């Protein structure tokens, strides 16, 4: 808490005092659900017995847009560069072209 207060004072940002380890747990659960849309997976990762507890985490953020940047790769090294740039693999076409996407 001392370090958090010190950083908050130095940056003139009182909101930093509100961040706790539990805040990171909420963030992790929210982002996992946003990425997978699998509430059961989030429930298992958080160790909840009741799905109602997990649903609290999934209502924290609303993504306004489901728009993506798309990219393709035909070689492994191209695919590796796309993954390193933050793209996620979607599928491979019948012509062996790998499709990737990244949220705008």
Please name the defining characteristics of this protein.
alpha+beta; three-stranded antiparallel β-sheet; 104 residues; 3 strands
What do these coordinates show?
Helix 2 (21-36) runs antiparallel to helix 3. The longest helix is centred in the first third of the chain and has 16 residues, at 21-36. This protein has a three-stranded antiparallel sheet, covered by helices on one side. It is extended. It is built from five helices and three strands; from the N terminus they run H-H-H-H-E-H-E-E. The protein is α+β, with helices and mostly antiparallel strands and 104 residues long. The protein folds into two domains: 2-58, no CATH class; 68-103, no CATH class. The mean pLDDT is 84. Strand 2 (88-92) and strand 3 (98-103) form a beta hairpin. Helix content is 49%, strand content 16%.
Topology of this protein?
Blueprint: H1 2-11, H2 21-36, H3 39-46, H4 51-58, E1 68-73, H5 76-84, E2 88-92, E3 98-103
Antiparallel strand pairs: 1-3, 2-3
């Amino acid at each position: 808490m001392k370090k958090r207060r010190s950083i908050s004072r130095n940056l003139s940002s009182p909101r930093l005092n509100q961040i706790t380890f539990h805040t990171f747990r909420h963030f992790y659960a929210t982002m996992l659900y946003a990425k997978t849309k699998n509430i059961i997976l989030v429930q298992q990762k958080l160790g909840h017995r009741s799905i109602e507890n997990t649903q609290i985490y999934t209502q924290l953020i609303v993504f306004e847009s489901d728009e993506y940047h798309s990219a393709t790769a035909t070689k492994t090294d191209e695919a590796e560069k796309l993954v390193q740039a933050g793209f996620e693999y979607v599928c491979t076409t019948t012509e062996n072209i790998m499709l990737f996407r990244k949220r705008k």
